[in-house]
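for the writeup, i need someone to sanity check this before i put it in the appendix. the sequnce is what the collaborator sent (i think, or maybe the updated version? ugh). structure was predicted straight from it, no edits. if anything looks off just tell me and ill rerun, i have time this weekend
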Amino acid sequence: MTERPAQRTPNRQLAALIAEAGFSNAGLARRVDQLGLEHGLDLRYDKTSVTRWLRGQQPRGTTPALIAEVFTRRLGRRLTAQDLGLDACAPVYAGLEFAASPDEAVDIVGGLWRKDSGSHAELRKIAFTPAGLVVPSRDWLIGRADEKVARVEVPVRIPAQGRPATPGIPAQLAPSRRRVPAERAPGQKVTGGDLAALRSVGELFRSLDDRYGGGHARQALVRYLEHELEPMLRGTYGEQTGRRLFAAAADLTRLAGWTSYDIAAHGLAQRYFVQALRLSQAAGDRAYGSYVLVTMSRQAVYLGHGREAVQLARVAQQGVGTSAPPVVQTLLHAAEARAHGLLGEVRACTASLVRAERALETARPGDDVPHWARFFDEAQLADEFGHCHRDLQQFRAAAQHAERSLQLRAPVYARSRLFCRVVLATARLGLGELDQACQLAAEAAGQAAEMRSVRATEYVRDFERRLEPYRDAAPVRGYRDRVAALG
């Protein structure tokens, strides 16, 4: 790889960190190459490359950010290219930073919103990286609460074209042009009506997502975040209003991530979840932070990263302790169960399911349940049981719980019902009931065709892969005819 002409000043910062990390030159080069492969980069550095860096040469492209990430993983603290004595560049980990302050968090998430609301399809192609889960979850768990979020007097900040608003914001998240809506300019006072509107917007988009899939209104949500929510966050507000504003921002950002996850924009979703986690810290809401971590755990399960999913669920439990309402405790234990189920860990999965069931049994009418946790009821818990038993190939139990969930689940949760119907179809297939399995799956396929949800489509495809050993059977041919008729 071509390097810039050598500088004459040896890089003592890099040398000190290599010594602290205990790397050899060859070992550092190998780790940079491996990290590059995670992002589709064929770098091929060696010990000679590291020797040149130590002599003062500057690696090009995204390599400084990759080197910084290698040291971040090794030393357990966030390091930038500048900390290594290297030139700053656009980091491949942009958006995965856990901001040091509420203002920085607004800068980072605002950059995501602005970039995502435009025609920047490359943002939706960013890869999910399991390693990007470690630092944010740790920083949330051990981080100190923000002492102050109030903003009394804030000047309008308009980033220059092609540059971030502040030196710490990645260039690829900076907008090509900053648009300040005429209806609300940064610096205006945030009111109680603004907060009520944010809650209503969240309920609206959540309902659309549940019924029709994340692809239907995701872009409208992101544009709302850019044009309405970001100016509020840059407005003026007192401490109490500010905490509530950051709580709403966390919730809507998590929802933007959830809808991105549903259309398989997994790297973008991961970044939204990380930023929602940071915004929940600014809100002072540990319980919501645990919910964001559970969301991240569910995405990790979906993508097959079971060990990371277990760790995220456990961090969520540690972070909230025993103070959360029973329904929230249920949600946390169910998330861990799903991760153990994916890994085939029968005893651990069963133990987590038992804890979830017992927690829900202690819930009482009139409990103060956060609005975001009210969806988790007996129908949802039965759904969790069904998924876990399916993954453990305990098909009779999976069928029983999936049937119960479908009986209890309200029609407004159309996508969740679709998922559960596919779980039931899979269980019936596992029990040798081919006719029923194909009938259920055909119903699910018809529903998936009406949604903009990659997850819904993937559930159906997963079932179809399981049908392969029976492809010549009459029920399977009938199923395929029905699906083909859907177009």
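The two ends are 48 Å apart (CA to CA). The mean pLDDT is 89.
thx in advance!!
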